[in-house]
Amino acid sequence: MFDDFDIFAAVVEQSSLNRASRQLNLSQPALSRKISKLEERLGVPLFNRFGKRLELTEVGRLAYTYALEQRQHRAKFLEAISKFKQGEPLSVTMGASLTTLQTTLPPLVNAYMEQYPAAELKLITGKTHEIVTSVREGRSEVGIIASATDEAGMRCVPLFEDRLRLVVAGHHPLAQLPRLEMEHLTGQPMILFSKGSWYRRMTDDLFQRSGVQPDIRMEIDSFEAIIRLLPTIKAAALLPNSYLRPELLAGGGLASLHIRELEMTKRTTCMIYREPGDLSPAARSLIRVTEGVFQGGLPPVP
Question: Rounded to an integer, what distance in angstroms lies between the CA atom of residue 22 and that of residue 13?
Fold first, then answer.
């Protein structure tokens, strides 16, 4: 029936059985029979006929819309098949924890789509343990998480190491101190990442070990929101170094400050995937690009 819809669309676009028959290389009687058979299958007329003039019925207009959609879907399908024959991946699903989504994904996605512009990259987000489960159960082929895992049947490839940094507005009193210690954060207004992430667990452990009790003003699960709010409420935040690109700090009038104890907050961001035998060609391509992007650590600032 799809061929009949193509023929029907040609008649509509040529506004004439005669012109459509020439375009399709069909005799006019054969073309008329095909249109009549299509109407019989549908059980409704597609044209009102006024001598040689054809006018679409209401159902005919719906049928023409459907024919155009089928034409577009077929073209997209054939293009995908062509790309596949040329060795380009079709579709791959990646899982990323919410925190790594904000630090790791932008340069990776840019590199992947630049190399494979016809590919379709689907993204699943969640907490680290949810992404591990997603990869294990096959809902994601590749995962990016802010920790290592030793799951059986799964590869875990370290991409780069990350640490926390203290971030404040450039005019904040803490930015004026020649040397910062953890004790300076006691009673300090702070914005912390929401509970449940490794960043928050690491921050809470750090405060507990150091005997620090900050004044927690907000808990937010967006690095961007935290960055925007820091100057407004005159607060400080502990954020991953991987997110603190120079242009981001400069654009927001922010300062990234070092505290010796923050060296203990090291965390390794990793790529995970099932054993290679279970991977699609698209997943293999994504893994190769990811390894290339993060070879030697974080990619340079664009």
Answer: 13
Q: Are 227 and 254 in contact, with CB atoms under 8 Å apart?
A: yes
Give the mean model confidence (pLDDT) for residues 120-145: 89
130 plus 276 within the same structural domain:
yes
- The reply to whether 153 and 218 lie within a common domain is no
Give the chain's radius of gyration (CA, Å). 29
Q: What is the mean pLDDT of the chain?
A: 85
Residues 15, 27 share a domain: yes
**CATH code of the domain in which 36 resides:** 1.10.10.10
pTM: 0.60
Query: Hey, what amino acid is at 272?
Result: I
In this structure, are strands 237-240 and 53-56 parallel, antiparallel, or unpaired? unpaired
Q: Could you give the CA distance from residue 255 to residue 244 in angstroms, rounded to a whole number?
A: 10
Q: Are residues 106 and 178 in the same domain?
A: no
114 burial via Cβ count (<10 Å: 0-12, 13-18, 19+): exposed
Residue 69 and residue 7 in one domain = yes
CA distance 116 to 285: 9
